[in-house]
Specification:
CATH topology of the largest domain: Metallo-beta-lactamase, Chain A
Helix content: 10-25%
Largest sheet: 7 strands, mixed
Structural class: alpha/beta
Number of helices: 8
CATH architecture of the largest domain: 4-Layer Sandwich
Organism: Xanthobacter agilis
Distance between the termini: 36 Å
Number of strands: 19
Number of domains: 2
Protein name: mRNA 3-end processing factor
Order of helices and strands: HEEEEEHEEEEEEHEHEHEEEHEHEHE
Strand order of the largest sheet: 7-8-9-10-11-18-19
Amino acid sequence: MRPEDLLCPSPKGLYCPAGDFHVDPVRVVPRAVITHGHSDHARAGHGRVLATRETLDLMALRLGPNFAAAQEALDYGTPVEIGGVTVSLHPAGHVLGSAQVRLEKDGLVIVVSGDYKDVPDPTCTPFEPVRCHVFVSEATFGLPVFRHPDAAAEVDKLLASVALFPERTHLLGAYSLGKAQRLMALIRQRGYAAALHLHGALAPITDYYASRGLDFGLLEPVADTHRKALPGAIVIAPPMAMTDLWARGFADPITCFASGWMRVRARARQRGVELPLVVSDHADWDGLTASIRATGCEELWVTHGAEDALVHWAQSRQIRARPLRLVAPVGDDGADRSDA
């Protein structure tokens, strides 16, 4: 069997002809396998959706309970047959419930990684390298310049600033699914015991994480009438809230933002970020290349980011490689690679 008979690009996204389903389709399809709940991968309207229990629950929170005509939950490592193709899900380490999709037919194995990271995260199952013939990798940070520092050390910068400027509110921008919860957990791990104040948009997903056993300590919603009365507090908000009228209600805030793109100082300046924190839920260059090697793949397909550099790296190591040039749409909640 040729790889393209098992998986190929299509106008609706990655398509499995042998099983007649799509992986993370960009348009509505009859049957979809979804890697995780971010809106540039998960959308409403599909006929049937297969994903982890957590991803299905998060999709329901974000898209409504009837986001698909039928939903099928699959545990990590449990195989299921779809049209003669053996499909299984494996941890991606990106956010809660995130998965790689393993496809096998006639001895050929292709793994679609979705979004992934290979560093510890207290809020999700660690990334699991899956041996395969063809590996489909993201490349959000697919350039050698992107080497993320230790996330705990970045959180220490935030806490040091809180101690240095106790009269000012620290307004921390973090993506609402995964990044915000990871930062809360890391802040607690670093010994910060005071209340964390949350924008209302973070509550439903944070509550769901807590229902899955995550303990974030004392969390308090930010009341509109009390925003100016939060000196010394850490306030966490989604990126879109950082640029609207809501953010202007704080007295002399220090604007912080957590993203792998904060490595690029020009991006921090463009956002008006006073304290950039280089914290990403995507693998950096070293993480990408180490993960690819760990799969033992003979062929690499690259998508979502700096495809050419990773293709060149693979080819220089005798791994067949090509870019997929798939379009990564912006989700209706503003989700895209700029908040990675």
